[in-house]
Amino acid sequence: DELKLREPKYRDIMAFGDPSALIVMEGGVLPHDDMDLISRYISALSGLDGGLLEQVHYVDALALKAAVLDFFRSASAAT
User: Fold this and answer.
1) Could you tell me which of 11, 20, 17 has the C-alpha nearest to residue 65?
2) In terms of Cα–Cα distance, which of 57, 58, 60, 8 is closest to 37?
3) Which DSSP helix (H) or strand (E) runs through 32?
4) Is residue 43 a contact partner of residue 68, using CB atoms and an 8 Å limit?
5) Cα separation, 11 vs 26, whole angstroms
6) 35-70 pLDDT, tens per residue?
7) Do 16 and 68 form a contact (C-beta atoms < 8 A)?
8) DSSP secondary-structure letter at 22?
9) In this structure, are residues 43 and 49 in contact, taking their beta carbons and an 8 Å threshold?
10) CA angle 65, 78, 46 (to 5 degrees)
11) What Cα–Cα distance (Å) separates residue 73 from each residue in 5, 36, 39, 54, 57?
12) How far apart are CA 8 and CA 45, in angstroms?
């Protein structure tokens, strides 16, 4: 019924990196979320393997993605 993600730790961040980046082009900036990295974070932070995560409903998958990205956005805003 409920899936909780632990906060990423040093080893997670060093192993996976930042899941979001800004692509700078002439005249603009485009945000980019690396879905492969986000998926790896979700697996690591939930403790579940990919087979179980593949059964997660679309709405819940979006919430998990947002949770991972929110950690990085909140941490960036705090520094």
Assistant:
1) 20
2) 8
3) strand 28-33
4) no
5) 35
6) 999 999 999 999 988 788 888 999 999 999 999 999
7) no
8) E
9) yes
10) 30
11) 16, 18, 17, 25, 24
12) 7
How far apart (Å, rounded) are the C-alpha atoms in residues 25 and 6?
A: 35
Q: State the pLDDT confidence band at 1, using cuts at 50, 70 and 90.
A: confident
* pTM of the model as a whole: 0.84
Nearest-angstrom CA–CA distance, 17 and 41:
10
Determine which helix (DSSP H) or strand (DSSP E) holds 24, and give its type and residue range: strand 20-25
Question: What local confidence, expressed as pLDDT, does residue 10 receive?
Answer: 95
**Residue 22 pLDDT > 90, yes or no?**
no
Nearest to 22 by CA among 14, 11, 13, 33: 33
